[in-house]
Amino acid sequence: MRPIFSFICLFVLLVSCKNQDKLTFEPFILHGDACADCPEVSVSYPKALENTKLASTINTALEEETISILNFDEDIAASTPEEAIKSFKNGYLELKRLYSDETIGWEAKIEGKVIYEDNALLTVELDSYIFTGGAHGYSSKQFLNFDKTKGKELENRQLFINQDEFERFAEIKFREQEKIPMDKPINHTGFMFEKDSFYLPENIGFTEKGIQLRYNPYEVASYADGPLELTLPYEEVKKFLARRGKS
Length: 247
Hints:
Domain Deacetylase PdaC: 37-138
Shape: flat
Oligomer: single chain
Strand order of the largest sheet: 1-2-3-4-5-6
CATH superfamily of the largest domain: Fervidobacterium nodosum Rt17-B1 like
Strand content: 25-35%
Helix content: 25-40%
Order of helices and strands: HEEHHEEEEHEEEH
Low-confidence stretches: 5-19
Protein name: DUF3298/DUF4163 domain-containing protein
Mean pLDDT: 89
CATH architecture of the largest domain: 2-Layer Sandwich
Domain DUF3298: 164-235
Organism: Ulvibacterium marinum
Largest sheet: 6 strands, mixed
């Protein structure tokens, strides 16, 4: 029995070591008021529990993004997600006051989740849907990337050793995926890149499969075309990365 017991102890130790660099999260959940004249609002994202600079950075970034999405009342300088939900409600009620016969219910849904984590990096995906009238709502996803060793949020340019070189590589892969000839303008098949020149999207994130580039609706194509995603395997892009993902 001793060899088996020793093996079990070793296994537990290895698992513990493997997970010791993983952050601990709990769900942060909010809902708007439930009433006949209230918009439907739900917010859910992971809240880091550690008392560290990194945890504070992650939580602050998610709060700020939530506030930015929901802040619809200029008279309220929302500083918390709760105040942002109130701002969204006030925006709806003001519109309903002005156009009582035309206003239909507003809706907001925000859902965040950790989609990638290693010893040095963590990426949170924030998925949102906002409907404030019109023919349809607007769905988008945002990537928030964090340097775990320095406890700070990373801008896109900080992900790469040389962003220009990565952009040239990404354009080749984008053209291959979307079947755009290399000798034709990038908008040859109907895209809407400004100045007919390829550029990286606002949202770039680490995933289990590789670096993902995501163009949200309207960014380079019509709403009907939906979002555009290009995932580049780590083996292909590791030479461009300032911080290495999975190899």
